[in-house]
Design a protein that fits this description.
The chain is mainly β. The protein is 0% helix and 50% strand. The protein has no helices and 11 strands. Strands 2, 4, 5, 6, 9, 10 and 11 form a 7-stranded mixed β-sheet that branches. Strands 1-3-8-7 form a 4-stranded antiparallel β-sheet, with no helix packed on it. β4 and β5 form a beta hairpin. The radius of gyration is 13 Å and the shape is globular.
């Protein structure tokens, strides 16, 4: 079992920055592949950023160059640094974990994951 708890969401103006955190606990082998997803009202959940156990990262095109995913293994915490945010970044952001190894943790997968409860990010223009 894996438990995920997001924090750091809030309201920010367009062009500003925000850092999300996700505290993880439970079976380490079930959270070798960590990711951030988001879901805006009326839209499907979409992958934002992905990090494998060796630190390799993958980003969705809309956030490339603006968002950075990282993790502190000593603290069992996943981060998402959001810079130059835009109104279209407004969404509920979810932390996700799965057991894929670094060889397959290269694409977003929304099934067979552990999920946090989400944290709301609202960007005003």
């Amino acid at each position: 079992q894996v438990q995920l708890q997001e924090s750091g969401g809030g309201s920010v103006q367009s062009g500003g920055s925000l850092r999300l955190s996700c505290a993880a606990s439970g079976d380490p082998s079930s959270r070798r592949c960590m990711a951030w997803f988001r879901q805006a009202p009326g839209k499907e959940r979409e992958g934002v950023a992905l990090i494998a156990s060796d630190g390799r990262t993958t980003y969705a095109d809309p956030v490339k160059g603006r968002f950075t995913i990282s993790q502190d293994n000593a603290k069992n915490t996943l981060y998402l640094q959001m810079n130059s945010v835009k109104p279209e970044d407004t969404a509920m952001y979810y932390c996700a974990a799965d057991s894929r190894s670094l060889y397959t943790c290269k694409y977003f997968r929304a099934t067979n994951n552990y999920w946090g409860q989400g944290t709301q990010v609202t960007v005003s223009s």
